[in-house]
Amino acid sequence: MTARFTGKTVLVTGAGSGIGRAVALAFAAEGASVVAAGRTAAPLDETAALIEEKGGTAAAITADVSRAQDVRALVRRTVEQFGGLDVAVNNAGVFRGGTAVADLPEEDWRTLLDINVTGVLFSLQAEIAQMRVQPGGGAIVNIASNLGAHRRAKGLAAYIASKAAVSALTRAAALDHIGDGVRINAVSPGPSDTAMSLRPGETGADRADRMKEVAPLGRVSSTAEIAAAVLYLASPDAASVVGTDLVVDGGAAA
Asked: Is 159 a catalytic residue?
């Protein structure tokens, strides 16, 4: 294992499970001090404990990304505890679907936009405010989805719209702030080994059988594979990669 992030501070939102937890663990394994953030304390504490059990450094901080004041406080506490903010991964998001546009509940629409889009905006604003004034700037990776800018599916219009917005917002922010020394990109996962990719009543084995039939790769992506893409974009290896949206979906959107 390399140590590309030794001495760096990394903030990961939605770090209590799934892709967010995998990303937090991967950064810690490469030497970073990691702040695991999210709305619920218990799973964040579990993520931090997993990092510390392996000799890493971590802190768990609760925050609701749909509240600007929460995200500003999150960044402030990160800097107070670790001295700066080198990398941020905006992973917090929710999934709701199964309804055609004409029947879409207003609550679902507003929830998806509030968390998936406005939450990313508020996070970017707080993170960039810190990174643009510190030596060395920083790198930000937003988690979008292959459902959105890259492909569509029936019954998922609100989720698709929210994630397409993340892709567009990422590119716009990247252009606005690369001159400030802040490098911004996105990763767009397809179905991965998380609960979000399970259909109602479906087991992991059921999903594996379904993926053999419908996925070009024949399986879901592991969370470690998604994390590897995030770490690449955040690393010096991607120093000239600005405003890209890296699709990691086993060929589904090819």
From this structure: yes
Domain range list for the chain:
9-248
Q: Are 36 and 59 in contact (CB under 8 A)?
A: yes
Please tell me the CATH code under which domain 9-248 is placed.
3.40.50.720
Strand pairing report for 182-189 and 245-248: parallel
Sheet holding 138-143, edge to edge: 57-62, 33-38, 9-13, 87-90, 138-143, 182-189, 245-248
Question: What long-range pairs does 105-112 form, CB within 8 A, spacing at least 24?
Answer: 108/158, 109/158, 112/158, 112/159, 112/161, 112/162
pLDDT in tens, 97-131: 889 999 999 999 999 999 999 999 999 999 999 99
Residue 173 has pLDDT above 80, yes or no: yes
Per the residue annotation, which of 159, 160, 185, 190 is the catalytic one?
A: 159
pLDDT band at 1 (very low <50, low <70, confident <90, very high): low
